[in-house]
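Lecture notes, continued. The same structure-token format from the folding unit now serves as the input rather than the output. Read the line below as a description of shape only.
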């Protein structure tokens, strides 16, 4: 480990300070979970804000990017319900995003031939082309957000987060 890396690993963050203070005030409590959950909760809005800033010049929010990405990955048009379940959106949020994406030429909605009360969504040819051009640059941006970690650390963190998500899914489904 380089001297700079060693110094960085010894640096304390806000969560360290919270844990230390709680350990003083309530030494009988195990504050270790705060080290993981506290950092996840602090990082998520920071990362989301950076993503939103990067996507703004492309007239997309991160959630809208996720919708167009899901549609481009799919081998069939998707219903709003499919998108809600896949992306963990609420109904009203999905409706708002779909309207904005349709107005922006990213997606198109057609009446569902199996249920005339609903509709199916797919990317427009232009929307699919725009995402195809944007995706490599966006992935490079996401890569830059992980600059503090080497390839092994990234893989380890991804595996650990996957494990947590799968466990949470089992709890929610059970």
């Amino acid at each position: 480990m380089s001297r700079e890396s060693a110094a960085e690993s010894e640096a304390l963050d806000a969560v360290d300070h919270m844990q230390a203070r709680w350990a003083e005030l309530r030494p009988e409590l195990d504050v270790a979970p705060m080290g993981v959950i506290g950092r996840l909760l602090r990082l998520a809005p920071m990362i989301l804000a950076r993503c939103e800033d990067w996507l703004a010049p492309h007239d997309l929010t991160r959630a809208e990017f996720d919708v167009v990405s899901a549609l481009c990955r799919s081998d069939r048009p998707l219903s709003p319900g499919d998108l809600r379940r896949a992306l963990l959106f609420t109904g009203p949020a999905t409706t708002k995003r779909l309207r904005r994406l349709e107005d922006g030429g990213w997606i198109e909605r057609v009446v569902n031939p199996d249920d005339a009360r609903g509709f199916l969504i797919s990317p427009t040819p232009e929307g699919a082309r725009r995402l195809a051009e944007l995706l490599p640059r966006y992935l490079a941006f996401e890569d830059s957000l992980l600059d503090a970690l080497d390839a092994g650390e990234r893989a380890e963190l991804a595996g650990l987060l996957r494990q947590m998500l799968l466990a949470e899914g089992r709890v929610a489904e059970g």
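Point for the exam: The mean pLDDT is 91.
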